[in-house]
Amino acid sequence: MREVWADVLALYGFKSGEYTIESYGSGLINSTCLVKTGTEVYVLQRINNHIFSNPYLIADNIDKISEHIRKTGADCFFAAPIQTGDGRSVVRVEQGYYRLFPFVKSSHTIDVVQTTRQAYEAARQFGKFTKSLSGIDIHRLNITLPAFHDLSLRYRQFLEALSGGNPDRICAVNALIEELKSYAGIVEEYGKIKDNPDFKLRVTHHDTKISNVLFDEEDNGICVIDLDTVMPGYFISDVGDMMRTYLCPVSEEESAYEKIEVREEFYFAIVQGYESYMKEELTPIEQQYFFYSGKFIIYMQALRFLTDYLNNDVYYGARYPDHNLVRATNQTTLLRRLMEKESVLSGFSAAAV
């Protein structure tokens, strides 16, 4: 791999022997390393083109976002890729697609949300990102992952797995299947959203886990990173993914389901952080769907995990038997816990802040 990194770095003018390379980050999709030369540090990344079939679409989106921020003077910093001498922000060699970023000094990422301050700062940064790009022509952005958060599609795939999946697995998890089918009203609500002109397509990150925010040494948010999934979308995607990954003290991998809970104070932090920039951007109808955002994303992820389990783990894979069943049960439990608190939390929505 180091030989490949060297071939790529040569395209950016780096000479052998003038830098060191070390692995970096905990991302599961792209491969990342730090490049150190003198006092300068860079982030070199290989884009997973098995997931993102056309990495040039990502590069084009980032270029358009950079151009918009530069022209409007928006107060929104993000680390744009460095271009090669001939103006390329993504380079292709035989082994794949690569890009180079400047390393933001005195910054760090967080893998697990530990405090409400971190949740607030992350939500604030994602809200700021979308707010800063409110004037961009949304139709100029490429779709890097088609139907990524299309809940209607995910539900259809779930139903298809019930008829064409592993019959033994289908029989064994009938109770879980029936529970997820009982929540189909969430899909119906999503259909209404798509048909409602009061729901606006905006520049949406689509992957708002805490590790996609850079923090300074005092845990103040600096900016969002990993813009591969940035494309037109609904605000419920970003808010919902924050709820899915910030509200619970344990991850989707936890099999001790009694540990799964929804921490109310983290919900309040998400609302306050996101609305510090987005409150005036959301329409009154959108504000009413703030709590729904969490149900939307958590339900979709539960469906996707169970669908993969019924299809013999062909998409996510499995590190041990029933891995995707554990994930599906985990997310279904989280959804149940969230809905149990709807009467309390939905009152503390965008409209109430």
Topology:
Elements: H1 2-11, E1 20-23, E2 31-37, E3 40-47, H2 55-72, E4 91-93, E5 96-102, H3 116-132, H4 151-164, H5 167-172, H6 174-182, H7 185-195, E6 202-204, E7 213-215, E8 221-224, E9 231-233, H8 235-246, H9 264-278, H10 284-288, H11 290-310, H12 323-340, H13 342-345
Antiparallel strand pairs: 1-2, 2-3, 3-5, 4-5, 6-9, 7-8
Helix pairs in contact: 3-9, 4-11, 8-9, 8-11, 11-12
Report on this model:
The chain is built from 13 helices and 9 strands. Helix 3 packs parallel to helix 9 (264-278), helix 8 packs antiparallel against helix 9 (264-278) and helix 8 crosses helix 11. The strands form 3 sheets. A 5-stranded antiparallel sheet has the order 1-2-3-5-4, covered by helices on one side. Strands 6-9 form a two-stranded antiparallel ribbon. A two-stranded antiparallel ribbon has the order 7-8. The N and C termini lie far apart (50 Å). By secondary structure, it is of the alpha+beta class.
Return residue spans where pLDDT drops below 50 for at least 5 consecutive residues. none
Biggest β-sheet strands, sense, barrel: 5 strands, antiparallel
Radius of gyration: 21 Å
Q: How many helical elements?
A: 13
Gross morphology is globular
Number of strands: 9
Major sheet strand order: 1-2-3-5-4
Estimated structural class: alpha+beta
Binned, the helix content reads 40-55%
The proportion of residues in beta strands is 5-15%
Question: Span from first to last CA?
Answer: 50 Å
Give the overall average pLDDT. 92
Keywords:
about 350 residues, alpha+beta, 5-stranded antiparallel β-sheet, two-stranded antiparallel ribbon, 9 strands, about 10% strand
